[in-house]
Amino acid sequence: ELNTIENKEKEKKPLLEHKTVHIEVKRDPKVQVARLKLPILGEEQRIMELVNENEFLIVAGETGSGKTTQLPQFLYEAGYAEHKMIAVTEPRRVATVAMAARVGHELALSSKEVSYLMRFEGNVTKDTKIKFMTDGVLLKEIQSDFLLSKYSVVIIDEAHERSVYTDILLGLLSRIVPLRRKRGNPLRLIIMSATLRIEDFTENTRLFKEPPPVIKIDSRQYPVTIHFNKHTYSDYLKEAFRKTVKIHTRLPEGGILIFVTGQQEVKYLVRKLKASFPYRKDVDYSKLITKTKPINEADAALDSEPDDIDSDDDEVEKEMKRAKKARRKAKQKIKTLPKINLDDYDMPDDDGQADLVDNDDESEGHLSDSDAEEDTLTPTIKSCRQPLWVLPLYSMLSSSKQAKVFAPPPVGARLCVVSTDVAETSLTIPAIKYVVDSGKKKMRVYDHVTGASAWRIVWTSQASAGQRAGRAGRVGAGHAYRLYSSAVFQHDCPPHHPPDLCRRPVDDLVLAMKCMGIDKVVNFPFPTAPDRMQLRLAEKRLETLGILEKPEVKKKKVDDDDMLKVTPLGKAVSAFPLLPRYGKMLALSHQQNLLSYTIALVSALTVPEVMSGKPDSWPATGHTLLLGDPGVLLRAVGAAEYAYVKGEEELFCAKYGIREKAIKEIRKLRKQLTSEINLSVAGVDVTIDPEMKPPNDNQARLLRQLVLSGLGDQVGRKIGLDEVKEGEDKRKFKYAYHCGELEEPVHLHSESILRKTIPEWVVYQELYETGAEERRKMVMRNVTAIEPEWLPVYVPQLCNLGEPLSDPEPRYDEKSGRVKCHFKGTFGKSGWELP
Ligand code: ADP
Ligand code: MG
User: Fold this and answer.
1) Which ligand is nearest to the CA of 61?
2) Model confidence over 548-585: pLDDT tens digits?
3) Mutate to test the pocket of ligand 1, among 428, 468, 474 (most ligand atoms within 8 A of CB)
4) CA-to-CA distance for 107 and 102, rounded, in angstroms?
5) Residues in domain Helicase ATP-binding (predicted)?
6) How far apart are CA 669 and CA 641, in angstroms?
7) Which end of the chain is less enclosed by CB atoms within 10 A, N or C?
8) Strand partners, 134
9) pTM for this structure?
């Protein structure tokens, strides 16, 4: 009885207490006015009461309600940054920088106090009070300080995005927070999310035994009318352009926000729209009569009108031809630059990924009247001379360009932002009234068995479509134009996309988790558990690479995969900020004094599409040739660096068909990797050699072995012509290999330098599928030739020594003085003998 009384007593008492201090903030009056309009301000007291008394809290609210910018300020003012820091994690780099700057500005604090930290970049100081960081950075910090003792509160922002790191963080924090309480040093966790699927957090009893309190921020959302297209055109960029022209020429004032899938598409549309409705610095637009009459719902429907393909559209058509011609002309002027393929949209716009076509990056400002092309670009739509103030927005955009979207457009011009899904929930652009939604997004699609991957443009989820449309209703009633039919919405758009974690290889996560002592990765309290198979495959790959191993437990036979532990090599590998296989190359190359080469090599392998043509002009022999495509990359990087020092980089790249932006990206990566490695790996002091000489024959041989050490699970063996089945066309097998457990043949990339030698044994960086339907085939990219006798040394897990294993005889054959070696998997012909 006493117990129950005590329990009841406990129930009444809040779980945590917090002595509220009030920290004075001197805000700019303008900031104060803007803040007061945000719905979250009305909830400050309720939120802070719940924060003070609880260790977990979920704050859900529409995008733009003020969660990210205001909640850290509430905490700061209540004294949470007095002795320890407030941490805010973001899944996107773009938001990490932008939000730190904004919160610093609103609190009138410098970047020394409201700082950000992301991989390779940051401005954190010892005086930092509020620290914005990418979720990956916090995860790394947990590895060295499991209890996160530097922080009083951790805010996981944009939790609905369900990034891999966010999910892992939530799982870990669900355990760390109670531990901190038990030590009398409480840590609070606030999960912030758009109003999407919070049940994944509240109804997941593995994550939280008791569902945490939820605060919903009701935001002033004005009605948004959704207009579906009658037809779904495959060229959604053209359709987006047409729709935007219609909105701009026919409908009243209000910003336009266009959603497309990637950086290139954004740039393409920005260029096109700028050319059609140029903004001239010398024209006074203030006298322009803008359409301010209230919007008429029938007019607003635009494409539902019977004039769907009327003369106006023809005019648009002409408009586009004109813009195209002008573009062509402009392009001819820039002859020195490599080929541009605007129709190739198949590239990521993800953090850390390079863009394919970027050579025609528009200049900072809008077209000025001194531009020669101006006349050709003048719009033919006479009824409207109002310019569009067109701005791009994507995750890799520089922060200064990013900031432009928050500023009002010049007088008389209409704001038009062309964005990737960054503007869906991470950043809120003021004064948007019209949303044009392509309905598409870019997603990385993996094959869990082969690891082959490709960026695919897929339909957004219905939830995303709702979020995108919602952007139009923040200042008043708005309109969202979906460039696809309602049937597509019903049948092709899934309600939600599965979280990232359930869609991608998790090698680095498995390793990171193992390093944190989470051995049973399969049992981890993930918000949504990934495929068990995938976790096991990652464990297996890491075991093959010697990064994980089964511990030798005396007397007890261990055959439980869950028990795989990190090897000393694995520990070393995990210090490198890359996927384990590349970490392994770097770790081993350090021992061979080849670290600076390997850093350059790995950087080059990280940036896609470096070379745009066959590298025929790259003579190589011996080991340098056998180093294969990575060798070509390495020499391209070295030579480009040399040209760069002489100030001839642009010419050099154009001459050799090298993407200049890629070289710049590689240079940046090299620098960042070098400094990061010097910082994070004990005993390493590596510098960048600006005039990196090509590796000599011996170095190239060692580099081949290093590449093998990292890609050892991705071995291919040439399919002999005698192995080709009767009736099959032998010519088709000229460049064909057996790869691991894959049944079908895999081909050398058509631009692989190894097509010159077609070596017997190779390792490859990546497998992917090309071609449509019947012509679909598997291709390997970035291939290096290896010697089979290296396999037992670098990938012993791949070999059965002695053949067959059950053979009771000694594996060493005295007569021939050889050890028989047999490779596991379907490598075609039987064993191979080691001297
Ligand atoms: P949430 O996190 O709930 O989506 P935010 O805190 O990001 O909302 O945004 C609140 C408001 O602050 C929005 O109206 C947004 O436009 C505004 N805002 C954010 N950053 C800036 C900035 N750099 N300049 C001007 N306004 C900004
Ligand atoms: Mg936010």
Assistant:
1) 1
2) 998 876 555 555 655 889 998 898 888 887 788 888 99
3) 428
4) 9
5) 48-214
6) 13
7) N
8) 90
9) 0.65
